[in-house]
Design brief:
Length: about 600
């Protein structure tokens, strides 16, 4: 019988770590240490010595430096509407308002390519018909001042809190490229007019979403937001605004991904940094809060197995909520496929209702506050972002670094590093890079929503989706209709089973089907006969190391003699690579390889183009 546990005894961390390393079977402690996209270490254990939370390092909720948030109660549920037809956009808006949405994000593009085709006051009236603007505040996502001026005229001097014109020349420059934001002065004049006529509204948007959707890291998003905000403060100051007048004119838009605690820390770090910017600018403490509108990100969404997007969107919204976002927009799980159906919109809005009402997140201020992990990561992200912001400012500011291409290059490097991690499956995408479901039926989309994907100028930040390269591979294979590999199982089921299962999932990622029996072949002759009956071009050897030592060489030779154009083997070859390649093995697949590259190799062997 073991000794009773004495709860009063202090824990011995050294002894605990020794037990952990014993469980790792000789591996080092560092194996448990992860890293964020910015290279910040994610330790397996945090303590009071990491962040002295007992001294309330983050202050109080609702007070400077606003690390713990500024909102009172639940956030605004603001859904986005972008159907090109203003009347159909209006139908979606009214249905969502009846379903509990509390605010509107109107995505506008006069051409109808990327949003609602609103060209004049009549189009805006159609899009907002029967909407009580005093009860459902409108937020705009549009390029230029035209849409903002149309909404200004429609409001006729009355706007409730939450109304946001979101004029954003710098964000448009990030997304559209071109010669640069030429209407900063006009934006400042517009903000001055709005602050006098509609003081409850915000005039300008500081948009960090283009950095996120281009594959940027968390500190890069925060730094870009800070530098954009600083640029707007300078323009407003130059137009005669005091810092206490300028600060309320700005609201932040930021994308959030599915890593809950990292996204929580990102929002908290943004508020901490922005409060420091405003403090250095002379703003009074009450004016130092960053109002944050969080959007669940598009780069995490998948076309294949799109239902898994519901989980990604939910966890992203959860992170935004506990991170203290003032407004949240949840994307539709079908957004990577096409326009949303009423069902997709219902799932999106009800995701937020569940978080507010059933998870009770709208009733708790800063639920992650005091967590040593979150508090430490908040400060580490803030330090990284502040240093990067200083680099941007030293080069002349956000616009100058976009003109020079420095910011695009920095973000592209972070994106490439993350893409390599996904290609080698050190980071996974369920339903795409792991556990793909071949032959699944895609969910319905709104066929009348014919928004297209516009081309991205070279100087802009290109929007990406992590799953896209894998989806392209799978699409090619499924279109060809003949991508299949024969499984040459060696040994008994317990011997070949683990590698065979790994390989079936590996192949399915590239849209490649698996042929042959799932049980053992009685003899090598039976294996060769089964291969011939399958009429396959490619065979894959799956077995245990002992089976490979005894049978792999002979099996590869006989498969090639039987007509196999290509032979792959599941497992690391080690010292046997030269011998097995000489016998006819062309390729090796195992944990840690570049999955994209190896699947492209298999596609070539199968004749998939």
């Amino acid at each position: 019988m073991s000794e009773p546990l004495h709860l009063g005894e202090p824990a011995d961390e050294a002894a605990w770590r020794a037990l952990v390393e014993q469980g790792l079977k000789g591996a080092k402690w560092e194996r448990l240490v992860g890293k964020t996209s910015d290279g910040i270490a994610l330790e397996p254990l945090y303590r009071e010595t990491d962040v002295a939370t007992a001294r309330d390092a983050s202050g109080f909720p609702g007070a400077a430096p606003f690390v713990r948030g500024a909102r009172q109660g639940a956030w605004l549920i603001r859904q986005a509407y972008a159907h090109p037809d203003p009347e159909k956009a209006n139908s979606a808006i009214l249905a969502d308002l009846a379903g509990g949405v509390t605010a509107i994000e109107l995505v506008i593009d006069p051409s109808g390519e990327r949003g609602v085709a609103i060209r004049n006051a009549r189009d805006l009236d159609l899009a907002l018909a029967d909407v009580i603007l005093e009860a459902a505040p409108v937020s705009l996502d549009a390029v230029g001042l035209q849409a903002a001026e149309l909404l200004e005229a429609k409001l006729r001097g009355v706007a409730v809190a939450g109304t946001a014109f979101n004029v954003d020349p710098i964000g448009a420059f990030m997304r559209e490229g071109g010669d640069g934001p030429s209407d900063l002065a006009n934006a400042a004049k517009f903000a001055a007019r709005i602050s006098k006529q509609l003081p409850a509204a915000t005039a300008l948007r500081v948009d960090a979403r283009p950095v996120h959707e281009a594959g940027g890291a968390e500190a890069q998003e925060i730094a870009a937001a800070l530098s954009s905000g600083i640029a707007y403060l300078r323009v407003l100051s130059g137009a005669g605004h005091s810092i206490d007048e300028a600060a309320p004119a700005l609201a932040f838009a930021i994308s959030v991904g599915p890593d809950v605690l990292i996204e929580t820390a990102k929002l908290r770090a943004l508020r901490l940094c922005w409060a420091c910017v405003l403090e250095a600018s002379g703003a009074s403490p009450a004016k130092r809060a960053a109002r944050i509108h969080a959007f669940t990100g598009a780069r995490m969404l998948t076309r294949h197995d799109a239902q898994t997007n519901i989980l990604r969107i939910t966890t992203a919204a959860f992170g935004a909520a506990i991170g203290g976002a003032d407004v949240i927009t949840t994307s539709n799980f079908t957004d990577a496929l096409g326009g949303p159906t009423p069902f997709a919109r219902r799932v999106a809005r009800n995701t937020q209702h569940v978080l507010i009402e059933e998870c009770r997140l709208g009733h708790v201020a800063d639920p992650a506050g005091g967590s040593w992990f979150v508090e430490k990561l908040t400060r580490e992200l803030a330090d990284k972002a502040w240093a990067l912001m200083q680099q941007i400012e030293a080069q002349g500011g956000i616009v100058a670094t976009l003109h020079s291409g420095w910011l695009q290059k920095t973000i592209a490097e972070a994106c490439s590093a993350r893409q390599r991690a996904i290609a080698t499956r050190r980071e996974t995408i369920t339903g795409v890079t792991d556990f793909p479901l071949l032959g699944a039926t895609a969910p319905e989309v709104d066929a009348s929503d014919r928004r297209g994907a516009a081309s991205t100028p070279a100087s802009a930040l290109p929007a990406i989706r992590w799953a896209e390269p894998f989806e392209a591979l799978r699409d090619r294979a499924e279109t060809s209709g003949a991508a299949a590999v024969f499984f040459a199982n060696l040994g008994t089921l317990p011997e070949f089973g683990p590698r065979a299962q790994f390989s079936r999932n590996f192949l399915a990622v590239g849209g490649i089907a698996s042929l042959g029996p799932e049980d053992a072949h009685a003899t090598t002759d039976a294996l060769i006969d089964a291969f011939g009956a399958a009429k396959a071009k490619v065979a894959l050897l799956a077995g245990a190391d002992a089976s490979y030592a005894d049978q792999a060489e002979n099996a590869a030779q006989r498969l090639k003699a039987a007509g196999a154009h290509w032979v792959a083997l599941a497992g690391k070859p080690g010292e046997s690579e030269a011998k097995w390649r000489a016998a006819g093995v062309d390729q090796f697949i195992y944990v840690g390889v570049d999955v994209l590259r190896e699947l492209e190799t298999l596609h070539a062997a199968l004749g998939v183009v």
